[in-house]
Amino acid sequence: MLSSITFGQFMPGDSLLHRLDPRTKVVGVLAVAASVLAAANWIGFALVAGLTLVAVLQSQLPAKVYISGLRAFWVIFAITFIVQAFLTPGEILAGLGPLKITQEGLETGGRIFLRLALLVLVASLLTLTTPPVNLAAGLESMLSPLKRLGVPAHELAMMMTIALRFVPILLQEAETLVRAQRSRGAAFVTGGPAGWARGLLPLFVPLFAGALRRAEDLATAMEARSYRGGANMTRMMSLRFGLPDYVVLTLTAVVLAGVVASRFL
């Protein structure tokens, strides 16, 4: 189900991850993503998976939230694994006509599967435990040094935050459109890939029209409230690093260093 995708959603809580500075979480997510991409063996994957598991447990969110979020990407995971298992040359373990399953293919498919799953989990952790307002403030603070080069830090942070907030809204609207068209006899999975693609075309027009309408309503609401970007803007709560933030940053740096070091073992 499209609505089960957790990326872009926020769930209130009082866990350690919820209380961390948003800049800490952004830097931590970037470090973990770099670790996932840099992992070249099972030692590196074990380090990243262990850190991700600790973060998931610390978030104190129900396990079904993460399971449903991963379930939404199972088609991508499955296709990627199957393609690697059958098309990677190496020692043949089994055959299915002209297709051969190789040991190297299974290992490569498993590594790519883990990479995708870990990236989805880490990205979901950031949005699930960070309110959009705090995320925008953190991104703006991180981009503020670029203001001297003429980079509109506030506008960029606001656009990224709004884009994240639009993800679950558009997914929910897409699912509503699918149900409405199915109730009218529309079929989305008949006729092979070409028929499936043709069946989705009627979905894109109302979906994009709804997205444009929501964007226009949002712009009108911001103008009605005299929104003028970051000029003379104040915040009720200022961002400050605490001891937990330094501990988390140190831990992610250690894991990244360990993953890089494991490539040379």
**Biggest sheet features:** 2 strands, antiparallel
> What is the element string, with H for helices and E for strands?
HHHHHEEHHHHH
Binned, the helix content reads 55-70%
The end-to-end span amounts to 42 Å
Structural class of the secondary elements?
Answer: mainly alpha
What is the gyration radius calculated from CA atoms? 22 Å
Poorly predicted tracts of residues = none
Number of strands: 2
Q: State which percent range the strand residues make up.
A: under 5%
Number of domains: 1
Number of helices: 10
The shape, in one word, is globular
Average pLDDT metric: 80
Going across the major beta sheet, what is the strand order? 1-2
Descriptive overview:
This protein has 265 residues and is mostly helical. The chain has one domain (2-262). 69% of the residues lie in helices and 3% in strands. It is built from 10 helices and 2 strands. A two-stranded antiparallel sheet has the order 1-2. The radius of gyration is 22 Å and the shape is globular. The model has no long low-confidence stretch (mean pLDDT 80).
